[in-house]
Structure formats: structure tokens, C-alpha cells
Amino acid sequence: MQYFVGDQEYFKGIGKIAFEGKGSKNPLAFKYYDAKKMIGGKTMAEHLRFATAYWHSFCADGTDPFGSSTMDFPFRKSDPYANAVAKADAAFEFFTKLGTPYYCFHDVDASPDSEDAVAYEKTFHKIADELLARQKASGVKLLWNTANVFTHPIYMNGAATNPDFNVVARAAVQVKNSLDVNVKLGGQNYVFWGGREGYMSLLNTDMKREQDHLARFLTMARDYGRSIGFKGTFLIEPKPMEPTKHQYDYDAATTIGFIKEYGLDKDFKCNIEANHATLAGHTFDHDLLVSANHGMLGSVDANQGDPINGWDTDEFPTDVYATTMAMLVILRHGGLGSGGLNFDAKRRRNSTDLEDLFIAHIGGMDSFALGLEVAHKIIDEGLFDTFVKNRYASFDAGDGKKFEDGSMDLASLAAIGRTVQIEKRSGKQEYLNNLMNSYLFG
Length: 442
Prior knowledge:
Layout: E1 18-19, E2 29-30, E3 38-39, E4 42-43, H1 44-48, E5 50-53, H2 54-58, H3 80-98, E6 102-106, H4 107-110, H5 117-138, E7 141-146, H6 165-185, E8 189-192, E9 198-199, H7 207-227, E10 233-236, E11 246-247, H8 252-261, E12 268-273, H9 274-279, H10 284-293, E13 297-301, H11 320-332, E14 341-343, H12 354-381, H13 383-391, H14 398-405, H15 410-417, H16 429-441
Parallel strand pairs: 1-2, 5-6, 5-14, 6-7, 7-8, 8-10, 10-12, 12-13, 13-14
Antiparallel strand pairs: 3-4, 9-11
Helix pairs in contact: 3-5, 5-6, 6-7, 10-11, 11-12
């Protein structure tokens, strides 16, 4: 990755973020993330495949439902096109100073939106050329991009699931152009997040028809993407609610069921976000494992929520217990392939210094790096795996194996059940919790 600064340096006084080790007290240095360190035959960088989110990092300004902007961006310009170019310069300066090898964006994060579809298309492709030039200059790559078909008022009733065909067609403009730009930029994946693909009330909703329309739209997008040379993975990002009350991609299991029902499973996988999983009442590692077990773990949005707040707070990940559990799933299932760990996270509203954007990412990268090291050690030593294997040992031979293999009928199973002597077997939960703590803090 080449150090990139455009015509103007925006993050002045901040150089390349270096690894200084866990003893360092420098807030602008890595304590655990050493990109070149080898873990199990791969470098940390190869395992973790970090990406920076364009929207939270260079668009989110601290505005929330209760207050206006608190953050100033030095690249902001009054002309929308000039602003987009300056934003791209600032973004690639940030990527290369921080050392994230990938980035992700929505179309209207990077390029100005327009009521005029033709003007939108023309400007988007001009900005894509600017992004491509910066990719070539820096070596930073596009992990994935997507179309924002949820913010504009026309999408208040959904995009692909909208009851008005004209809105569905307008959404297609953005998705088609986003796929065109993806191929131009060499994107490794393409994401769909159905923020408005759901409903508020069944009194005005034909759920079956909307889900059929969503599947039709995704099928058309898949076919178009393949026709223009996109060879990557299509990803759907589950979320249970917010902004709609009931979203059709509620969680990993629901999304996988939808993908399989409509025959999209050869092309689509899941992009799992930690905060979305917890909003659905699951843990982060639960939705990762559900996806992995179905061969549909594609990529990860790395963040965390606040257990006290019941909404999507999109905080940078600092819970090493959660990152360790996540990396256990990812390592055991062979890594993320073409996916990565995208920081779909934003600074807190009162973290207003430009260096806070670096500090937040450094903390998230360190948390996953430490989680990677601990998870690899856990797998290498095998204590948890051995415990789980022994817990299910009754299915490894004899009648238990016959049951598991499907070579036993219910009557035979019941006959055995009449004669068995059942012993109480502890799940040893406290022991396992303590063992995990010994890896984390020992």
C-alpha cells in the first residue's frame, strides 16, 4: 500500500500508524495489530482483511434525532462534485495512513445524488474514475459497494418491495450503476442491505408479493452483474428492524431461508453485522456460525451495540470476548474468502477531533487482532474442541451413530429408550467461562 496524499493534506500531524506493541501508551499506534505477523501460516492482514466504511467515516457528522452536526470535515466544499473529489482525497489519505487495505461505500456516499437519473449516472461514473485513479495510486482495493435505496424520500415504502412499480424501476437505476462501478473498480463483493425492505403494518401490505418482488429484483441484479463480468459474491446484510418495523432479512437464518427458497444460494451469501445480530436477539458469533454452517458466511461488518440502548448504535468494537468468539467461528470455517472485516462503525457524537477517527479504528483493529491471536491459540490447544467432542461422544459409535446416520427408525429408538439408564452430565459452563478468561487474561 502506497502512502497517498492528494493536492492537500487533510489529516495534518498524523503520519503512518505504526505497530508499537502492547506496552505503548501512544493513542496513535497499534498495540496488537501487527499486519505482517504470522498467525497459523497467514499474516494478520491476510486473516483480518480490514476495510473502512466511507459513510460513517467521511459522511456521518454527529447528527442524530435529537441534535445537529457536531463534526467538521476539512474537505467539505460547497460544490457537490468538488466536495466528492476532496472527500475521495481525504478518504485515501486516511486509508493509507491507517493501513486498511480495503474500503466500502454506498453510491451516494461517494457521489452526489440527483433527482435527475441521467445526471446521477453521469456524475457517479466520473467519480468512479476518480476513485479508480486513487486505488491505482495507493493499492487500496474495493471490498464491496452498494446502492443507498433507503434514504431518499421516494424509498419511504421500500425499494424493490415498494408497492409503486415506478419506485422499483428508479431503484434499479442505482443498483445497475452501482454494479457497473463495482466492475470498473474491481470490487470483490456486492452488498444489498434492505433497510426499507419490510413493513410497518400488515393492514396495507401484501407480504408474499413484496418478498416475490424482492427475489425477482435480486435475481435480475445477479443476472446483470454476471453479464457485465462481476465474478464476486453477492451479499445480503440481515437486520431485524430499524428503519422498518419488520424487515424481511430479520437475521442470518431468515435470510438464508429466503436465499434458498428463491434459488439464489449459488451466488448469494450473508454479510453479518454484529450490532444487527444483537438487535435480533442473538450474539454476533451466533449469526456468524449460522451462516458458516450453511456455507454462506461471506463478509462481516465489524462493530458492536450498546446493551442498554435498543437501537443500532454502530460503535467501534472493543469487546475482546466478542471478537475472540467471532474469530473462533471465522478460523474454524476457513476464513472469510473474498470477504473482510468492514468497520461499519462511527465515532461517538462528542468525539469531534479528527484524530478520534484514527483512534476509533485503531481500537477496533487491535480488538480483532487480539481476538485472532486468542482464537488461534484456543484452536491450536484444542481444549474446548475436545470438551465438545466428548460431550457428544454417545453419537460416535453404536446406537447413537446409527441414529445420527439415519439407519434407525422411531420404534427402534423408542425400544432403546425403554431400557437406558440416564446419568446426569454437567455442561460445565462455569469451568468453560473460566477457561476462556484464562486465555483472555491469563
